[in-house]
Amino acid sequence: MKTRPNYLAGIGAFMWLAIVAVPLYVMLSATFQTRAEFGDNGPLSLPASFTLQNYVDAVSSGFGLYFLNTVIVTAGVVGIVLLLVPPLSYAIVRSQSRAASAIFRLFLLGLAIPAQAVIVPVFYLINTVGLYDNLLGVILPTAAFALPICTIILSGTMRDITPELYEAMAMDGATPARAFLRLVLPLSKGGLSTIAVFSALQAWNGFLFPLILTQSESTRVVTLGLFNFQTQFGINIPGLLAAVTLSMVPVLLVYLFARRALVQGLMGAGGK
Amino acid sequence: MTTTLAPRRRPARPGGTNEVRPAGRGGSSVGRPGFVWALPASIFFALFALVPLLAVAVLSFTSWSGLGDPKFVGLKNWEALFDDPVMLQSLWLSLLFIVLGIVTQTPLSILLGVWAAGNQRNRAILSAIYFVPLLLSSAAISVLWRALLDPNFGIPGQLSWLFGDGNVLGTQTGAIAVLIFVGMWQFTPFHTLIYQGAARQIPSVLYQAASIDGAGTVRQFFSITLPQLKNSIVTSVILMVVGGLTTFETVLILTNGGPGTSTTITAFHMYQEAFRRFDFGTGSAIALVLVVISTAISFAVVRLSGYDKMRSSLEGL
Description:
The structure holds two protein chains of two kinds.
Chain A: H1 7-31, H2 35-41, H3 53-94, H4 98-110, H5 115-128, H6 135-159, H7 163-171, H8 176-187, H9 189-205, H10 208-213, H11 222-233, H12 237-257, H13 259-268
Chain B: H1 2-5, H2 39-59, E1 62-63, E2 71-72, H3 76-82, H4 85-116, H5 121-130, H6 132-135, H7 138-148, H8 155-158, H9 160-163, H10 172-200, H11 204-212, H12 217-228, H13 230-245, H14 249-254, H15 266-276, H16 280-305, H17 307-316
Antiparallel strand pairs in B: 1-2
């Protein structure tokens, strides 16, 4: 390792810290000021008073419901991902059939498909099956687009299980299903939590599918709620920023407690 | 983190071909799952991604307003697209966004990534803060910056020496600059992460040898670090190209494609044609253009870097 400090990079790193942190600080400080004070003093001033009114406003203008909807979408997406990806990765890593390797290539290719590219047919499909303006209609395509990256992440974890362990299971006469339940799943816990956290992040932050596939207030998710707030009361900046802050809290909590899983997922997302 | 960062030198082949045992070491196919295990996920993915991809090609030859059934109209949408000045402009704008994104983010994220790869404790804490923008939704980020840049109540009003009349998003140059800056704010952490992982894998022996030869930090950076990061630079640039091509929320929320059509990039133009003018045929044609361009870029990269290398860099990151 290098022993001499790299001053140039160090200075750059601290400047970048300011660029990242100052807007977040301005956001937080604005949410605790009254609208009048924020308007008078400007965003860069230090707050002189303290109020929680902006958060009350944000919640009372429907944000609670949006949160609930987003939680439902996120839970649905994570559920589907955890149901579908482990057997797929197991087949990719262990099956000897040509079909399994073709499927893996297909999912690699799937990484390159942008959601925008297929949004019109997906809209048509969801309309046809009667799921328009239904949270399930958001969950299904969101989960489908989380599959490629989750498959690549989990297959990577499952490859680290040594062949000797499988052989020991096979020696005992274990079926593939038994090996999957008793050996593969317990040894892939790290990968499973990574794909759970990562697909949750994608669902929580999703915007395009809810924008196109939902319409009414009762199915609105948080990201759409923010967009709507902006056009609706864009002039009440502290209230708007309180809503933005609320939308970030769950993700930041997960980051605090599951940082490793999140960062691993993001690094795996190198293909996205 | 160390396990995922470990280089995967062995060719990782799907289908378990790398796990075939030498003859005589026990039945290799005993207890192996059939490809049936892969079917549920594959069918699900095909339904929402692969079939729509084919359908978008079909829809681009139809006229459909969202009601009733699509009607076949031949090449009409495509002819209209070639005559559409906004479409042509949107392609140039997308190119401009991609180039400016690469130029602003690459040097910064290399510098930060290499710096963050050091073992010092303060660097770990700082990098934890760096990654925060990466976790936030594009919607939240765009709404945040739109509020911060509000002409009346935002930062420009307070720093008029820097922002002039304060209506930053009111001119094309200003709007493009804001979109590029917000893109940088949001995505530099991601590319930093790529370079941080890659820089950690550079053998320290190289630096020790260079030190003995009397090379300084700057010299070491240009003669060792940069060449060693070559593969990561390729990966990162590709992701910027694909990401730039599909930027959507930021444009919708920050500029709504404007002023006028001056920030209407191709992905946003597609959204407008399909979901604001309810011309789903033209929207599908534009979507197909996006697919073709991003696939062409992906193939170009696969040809440049080699398929297996590409795959192992995806896994090993």
